Fold this sequence. Notes:
By secondary structure, the chain is an alpha+beta fold. The protein has helices at 97-101, 112-125, 138-157, 163-183, 193-207, 215-221, 226-237, 241-259, 264-270, 276-287, 291-295, and strands at residues 5-6, 15-16, 18-23, 36-50, 53-58, 61-65, 72-86, 133-135. It is globular, with a radius of gyration of 19 Å.
Amino acid sequence: MRLCTECHWDGWDRVVDIYPERSDTLPAYINDPDKYKLIILEKGAIEISSEGRTRVVKAPALIGLSQKDVLEYRILQGIKVCILFFNPTVIREEFTYERIDAGEFNEAWGTSIYQDYFLIRYVSETTNVCDHVIELPLNGLKRLKELFTAAEKELHGQKDGFWPCRSRSYLIEILFYIVYSFIEVAPDENVSPEQDDFSAITEYLNEHIDEQISVDTITKKFAINKNKLNDLFMKQASMTWHDYLLTLRIDLAKSMLINTELPINEVASRVGYPDAGYFAKIFKHVTGKTPSLYRGK
């Protein structure tokens, strides 16, 4: 079975190396040796095993697999899953399995290619499948399903000529959301109340990255005053909450600009700036380049 999406337009032989699937089981090709997989466990429970370790995974949860991983599993309770199969070259053509597995991009710190590699590192570098599991809060499951559905709609609907890069952009956003909501800011085992609050707020910022977010929004939702909010972010991230949100938005915009051909106004809207002119002004202030120049660099 070809785990990719072919264009159904006459005369356009385009193939996008992403394949979405919804199922009430794990398909026989879940261990396909040519694809990464993101498995969103929406319902049920499974037991997974790897190298002598066993772990029970209960919904809601996420499992990320590289092309080398072999998922040994037993369904404990009826499941419902959303699965994205993809080849990492769909994000950047440089991301071949040979170059990733050789560790070539680990030393590219500070470059745009490292920023993109960072999105797939959790899948590519983790050695034991039991460590690939992320337990999701309900709002995290909801957001991942929204992004999965958006990618699925583009891949199946192919409504205009931007469907290939738009579907890729949703994959990028899914990976971005996973990394910056559940990996990069994951609290330690001996979590402090401050770490817990920081993780909850950053997850919220990621979840609503395309929306207008004010300080009042945050202070009311998390019952924290403005000074304590900024103190929290200065202590945990060495920047204010607003600068943290700005960094998230600009980083996601950078990845979409470099790796897709989406119109700049659409990229702006996706990262929370309905006014493309204002987005361009902010982007240039942060990066020193306009979005168009950054895309063409």
